[in-house]
Amino acid sequence: MMPEPTPSVEPDLLLGTAMWGWTTPKDMAFQLLDDWYRRGFRTVDMATNYPIDKVPGHFRLAEQILAEWIKANGVNDLEVMMKIGSVNNLRTQEHVLTESFILMMLDEYKWMFGSNLGTLMVHWDNRDDATAVEETLVGLDFARKAGLRTGLSGIRHPEIYHALNARFGFDFSIQIKHNPLYSDFEHYALFHGARRFIAYGINAGGLKLRQEDNSLKSCLQARGGNPAATPEILQKLEAIVAKGNENTHRPKLVAMHQLGLIFAYYQPGMAGIITGPSSPAQLTAAVDFYQMLPQADYADIYGELKKLQPK
Prior knowledge:
The protein is built from eleven helices and nine strands. The chain is an alpha/beta fold. The chain folds into two domains: 9-171, Alpha-Beta Barrel (TIM Barrel); 203-311, no CATH class. The longest helix has 16 residues, at 130-145.
């Protein structure tokens, strides 16, 4: 069992933006940023291909919304984690990660976000060519020399990055899909042993704990999920929640985002958790539960959720 979390090691909370300009319009994104900033949070996760709605005209729309909010409010102390490489928002595998492309993106995002740019991260790399990956790392080295942190997300062959990193010595942040139904944590086993991982997709694509909520026009459907395939797993989650709620010494669990937060919070090596609220009420619920976690013990829930992971 993981040691009880303490303030010095608990994962940071990041604001997710994948739905901005899609199911989350600009005015709502502005409200979320206002509330996020007011509550003292600063890290925002972003990618070139957000929103992921397969509408070509929306390519890079989310970053434009963020840049507009930054300019309107004169903010200079965000920590924007920027993922680059995708060349469209059609959810295809097309990408560019050459040295020259990375340098171009570095200059562009330094201009767009200024001092708010904190991390430059490789996004969706399916290549098995070590020579090409090495060129990518040469480009990332310029970002590091510019004072940015570096990271990886959606890497099909992490062993190539790990071998090459013996030369470069990057202290990568690594974003992984990580929720009670599926986790990429073991895929990056070569990078274990450091607090470097950042969980995304903690709500399992918008899954709701109540089956009737999954049949509505929900985020689950927007992301391509199949509500008809969820009853069996929901029964297992409901059983875990019912058993866990017998403990009267902590707040009761009522929502999927709480299970996702618990599952990421207790995972060893986790440095951050991305939450993607679509309304101020959802943001408040996520932040309040996250801030309560250091005072409550949900290790038993984490243990039961671990048992749901595919073998």
